[in-house]
Structures are given as structure tokens and as C-alpha cells.
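Input record (one chain):
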Amino acid sequence: MNTYVIGDLQGCFTTLEALLARVKFRRTHDRLWFVGDLVNRGAGSLECLRFIRRLGSSAAVVLGNHDLHLLAVAEGFAKQSKLDTLDPILAAPDRESLLDWLRHQSLLHVDGAFAMVHAGLMPQWSWRQAQGLAREVESALRGSDYRALLAGMYGNEPLAWSDDLRGAARLRFVINTMTRMRTLTNDGEHVLKFKAGLVEIPVDQHAWFQLPTVRRAKRTLFAGHWSALGFLEHGETVMLDTGCIWGGALTAVRLGDGKCFQQPSLEVSTTIDSVALRRD
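The corresponding structure, as predicted from the sequence alone:
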């Protein structure tokens, strides 16, 4: 049995099918982990959701910012941008079951020596604390009052973590960290508008994975979200967003031997500006 960790899909279903053929994926024997952003910007978002949901226990998913955006749009708490491609999902006959399934996915997935999150973790969080905070958000998103979470999750503040944070501010910070973060200031504050590469990071900021962390059990963490980096291994962190949606590739890493597989993008779009996509 093999497990493959796959980078940001963003609706690139055609490329996903080709990647799975490349690795000779066997549904009855292998598992797939997805680092979030299953949907949006690509033409196959509906197909991606249906396929992954059908995988059942053969798949593990963490939510990305685009996945949460879909849920917020569906509930009327956000509007689609001109680059969004969510209408096929919102108009689908199985819309409600797909959205309910999506609400029940994780924010952080930990399994033995490996873990997965969409964007990143705060350097001062232990594994135990990070898992506890993820469960707080997951519980709110899966509960009967999930609309309150979606209504209050937008916004960049608070910028810094405090154990004293409570309520919507606490949940929003955890969501921003795990689904939107790229860089932190020297004081440990989020800089959520930065989207360029490592060489362009200002001197008063650092990539979240470059900062010293608290003592944690040795564990490889897979993340995505930061397409300007491409495939990057830094210590025990592996970044997997290789920009399939804007003409890059879709990347998978096989757990166990760490072998990397890449499928060049097969997505075709005549309406979406790839430069704009890269900046998102």
C-alpha cells in the first residue's frame, strides 16, 4: 500500500487524473492525502469534490482557504470574484451533500511521522496545541451553528497569537494560520498580503517555516498554498503547491520513500489570467 500527498488542486481534475495514472494509483490498495484548495479557479472543481468524496477512507483532506470560501459563498457570507469558478458546484443536484461532506473535513491531519496542513503552523505551537486548536475550528464547522463560524472568519486580525484569544477572534486566527499564512514579522505577526517568493521577502519578515519552532516530536509536515515557492523541502517541511492552475504542475510525494512525482498542467483556460492566479 502506498500513500501519496498531493498539492493544491484548485479544480484541476484533468491533471489529477493524469497524475494518478502516472503513479499507478490503486484505489483498493493506496491512499491519497490532499493539502487543501480542492476547488476554485479550475474548470473541474465539481469533479474534484465528487471524486475525492467517493474515495471514502482512501482519502484524507485538509481544508484550504478556497474550500472555506466555497462554504461561505454557499451560505451567503461572501461573494464570488470574477476569477471564481464555483457555479457548477452551487448549481449541482448533489450540492448540499458535497458541502456537508466538505464541512466535515479536517484543518490539520496528523498520522504517525507525518502531518498535513494547507498553509502552515505557528512556530510556538506544539503538536498537541496545534491539534487542539484545529479541533476547535473543526467542531465549530461541523456543529449546528456552523454558519456563525463562516460569518465571522473573514478578516486579518488578530495578527498575533495569544493563548488568551477567545471566541471568533481565536477561531479566525487559527483559520488564517492554517489556511492563509505565508510569512510572519520578526514579532510573530501575520503578513497575510505577501504572496511572492523567498528572495522577495522583506528583511523584517520570514517564511513561517524558517522561524525556530518549539520542541516538537520529529514529524514531516506537508503544506501547500504558496505557489510562488514551487516544490520546496526545508528541514521537516515540504511545500507542494506547484501552481497547476496557472500552467505549472500538480505534485505528489509518496510517503515512505519520499519520491516526488509531477504532472505538467493539462488545464486549458482562455478566460483566466494566469498571472492573476499566481498572485492569489
